[in-house]
Design brief:
The structure is a single chain. This protein is of the alpha/beta class and 215 residues long. The chain has a single domain (12-201), classed as Glucose Oxidase, domain 1 (3-Layer(bba) Sandwich). The chain contains 6 helices and 12 strands. The chain has helices at residues 12-24, 26-33, 67-75, 96-104, 119-125, 179-201; strands at 44-45, 52-60, 81-85, 109-113, 115-116, 129-131, 133-134, 146-147, 151-153, 156-158, 163-167, 170-174. The strands form 3 sheets. Strands 1, 2, 3, 4, 6, 8, 11 and 12 form an 8-stranded mixed β-sheet that branches. Strands 5-7 form a two-stranded parallel ribbon. The radius of gyration is 18 Å and the shape is elongated. The N and C termini lie far apart (47 Å).
C-alpha cells in the first residue's frame, strides 16, 4: 500500500539544517552525526560533480520494472530526493524522460539501488543521480511496487522524510530526528579540522591521536 506525502517534507528550521549539513559535505555530516548512516559504496554519482541534499521520498520497484518510479516522480513533493529500492537489478530504471519530469516538478535528485541510463543527457540537464551503475536494458511498467514505505537502499533502511546527502564521497541517510545533533557535531568537527589544517600549513605536523582501545 502506498503511503503518500503531501506538502513540504521539512519545516523551515529543518530545511536550514539540511542546507548546513550539505555545505559541510557527506563525510563531515556522517562523522558529525555519530550514526552508522552511510550507504553502500556501490551507490555513486553517475556524473562528476553531482551533489544532492533533501528529504527522502521512497519507492520500491518490482524486478526489472519502473512503474513505481514513474508514479513516485509524479507525486513526490518539490525539494525531495527520490530514494528507490530497485533490488540492485541491472535495467534502465531511469533515463532522460524521467529526468525532465523530475526537473519540472522541482525534485532534488535520485538515489537508486539499481542502474540507470542516458547518463550524458542527465549530466547535460544537471540533475543529480546516484546509482550502482549504468545499463541500457529495457525496464517494464507492469508492477505497481510501493511508494512512501520504508525501503532498503545501499544496505540501510530509509524512510520517507529522512535526510539524504550525496556528493563525491558517497551518500548518507540521516533520520529526521537527528538533524540538530548532526549539525552540532558536524560544526564541531569542521572547526577542529580547520584548526589542524592551519597547524599543518604553518609547518607543524601534529602528533597521531590513537583511538582508545576498548576492553
Amino acid at each position: 500500500m502506498d503511503v503518500l506525502q503531501n506538502g513540504p517534507l521539512l519545516e523551515a528550521d529543518e530545511a536550514e539544517q539540511v542546507r548546513q549539513l550539505a555545505a559541510f559535505g557527506s563525510s563531515t555530516a556522517y562523522e558529525g552525526s555519530g550514526l552508522d548512516c552511510w550507504l553502500d559504496t556501490r551507490i555513486r554519482p553517475v556524473w562528476p560533480g553531482a551533489r544532492l541534499a533533501g528529504p527522502a521520498y521512497t519507492a520500491r520497484t518490482g524486478p526489472g520494472d519502473n512503474l513505481a518510479i514513474q508514479r513516485a516522480v509524479r507525486t513526490a513533493p518539490a525539494g525531495s530526493v527520490l530514494v528507490v529500492d530497485a533490488g540492485g537489478h541491472q535495467y534502465g530504471h531511469w533515463g532522460n524522460i524521467l529526468t525532465e519530469i523530475a526537473l519540472v516538478r522541482g525534485l532534488a535528485g535520485l538515489v537508486i539501488d539499481g542502474t540507470i541510463r542516458d547518463v550524458e543527457e542527465i549530466q547535460r540537464l544537471g540533475f543529480p543521480v546516484f546509482a550502482i551503475g549504468v545499463c541500457m536494458r529495457h525496464a517494464g511498467k507492469s508492477h505497481d511496487g510501493t511508494i512512501g514505505e520504508d525501503v532498503t537502499v545501499g544496505g540501510r533502511v530509509v524512510r520517507t522524510g529522512d535526510l539524504v546527502i550525496g556528493d563525491a564521497d558517497g551518500v548518507i541517510s540521516l533520520p529526521r530526528g537527528h538533524l540538530a545533533a548532526a549539525v552540532d557535531g558536524a560544526t564541531s568537527r569542521h572547526q577542529r579540522e580547520k584548526q589542524r589544517l592551519a597547524t599543518i600549513r604553518s609547518g607543524v605536523i601534529p602528533p597521531i591521536v590513537q583511538d582508545r582501545r576498548q576492553s
